[in-house]
Amino acid sequence: MPLGGDMPDGARLIAVLGGLPERAGAPAVGVESLILPFQSVGDNVLLGTESSGGFFLRKATLDRRAAELLARVGLSLAPSSAAIDLDPVERRAVELARALARSPEHVLIDDRQSRFTVDEHRRWLEVLAHAARTTRVFVAVDSLPDLHFGVRAFDLVAVVRNGDLVDWAEPDGAAQLAKSLVGNAASAERPVRVLGPIVLELQNVTVCDPVHRERVRVENASLTVRAGEIIGLGGAQDLALGIFGASTGGAVTGTMFVDGNPVDLSTVERAIAARVLFISEHPPTYDVGIIGGVPTSVSGTSLARLARLGIIDRRREYVPRRAPSMLLEVIPGAPSRPSTSDMNEVLAGWAAQPPRVAILTEPFSGLSPTEVTERRTLIEGLADVGIAVLLEAADAMQLIDLSDRILLQAGTRISTELRGGNVSALGLAAYRLRTYPQSEN
């Protein structure tokens, strides 16, 4: 379906739920930085389009063109500025200016895993508003609260399903899009579980970036999990890994209790000793470039260690990957993620010798329907023997019909909780479409 269609001509800045629309030739800007840190800002803006005006252009001409593109996103940076000194908002703005250099009809922005602070979100929305004056901009988000209540700055809210833009409405009427967002998804009957006492309690837990310790990834999160309860965490990977021995690599503060007793879960070894266990087929990793001639992908704790040793450049932005690095995939014999059967064996072992807390991230990503059913049965088996279970997934829809409660992260905060009848596809859609402020934990 064309991106334009019957959409009003005056709609320039459009918030999109359900994923990015498919459009051949439309440049896309993602969360992962594609800035060349040791080049100038101007070189980054013109990357890939340097010769579009002919060869042997004078530097003054190139700088003037780069400055014009930077002005289109509201930046007054000199093209000669060093890209390594840009802050996170400026980096993304430079990438957007690069996309505009191709004179596209549309630009696609993927903000679904953004971890901007509230102030950075405001600045980023200003950048998008500048760009939308000359080019239609589609911004994919997990929910409208992810925009930190800047949805009023958008002209439309649109829904994408299977790559097609299927429905849209003005922000004031966004609630009517719930059925379009859900589609034909049918909710299964959720099991009624008998819950035991509180097993895990978090009080004001904050998780920081592994390299830039001043940047917060999760802020003041508090929750309780009972024996036999399954809690879904939507887009809260950093919180899950922070609980498991600070596996993000960043500093973790706050208080944690297991069975009512304060515990030190600051390392993986201490977490395991406290019977708090973690597993994932898609553990987050960071690409740090070439070490010894081999493409290298490392864990959060390893990234933090490399930063402390001065082996990596702390000025660069490192974004965690949920999928294996494509660089490592092509190397014969390189370590890979555990297979589906390996993970299932581990889960079966946990049910036989129960830990107190089981943490799983991306439990169903990439599985066939048969494999999803098998995995669900194993996870329900963990709850049946009294384990407190935390499931985390980027797409909270994966957690529907299995979780007793779902907590959703927006920006750096756990912004809302779905429980009871709202733990459904329609309940999640209603949350994603809310345009008024949420109470924060």
From TrEMBL:
<dbReference type="GO" id="GO:0005524">
    <property type="term" value="F:ATP binding"/>
</dbReference>
<dbReference type="InterPro" id="IPR050107">
    <property type="entry name" value="ABC_carbohydrate_import_ATPase"/>
</dbReference>
<keyword id="KW-0547">Nucleotide-binding</keyword>
<dbReference type="InterPro" id="IPR027417">
    <property type="entry name" value="P-loop_NTPase"/>
</dbReference>
<keyword id="KW-0067">ATP-binding</keyword>
<protein>
    <submittedName>
        <fullName>Sugar ABC transporter ATP-binding protein</fullName>
    </submittedName>
</protein>
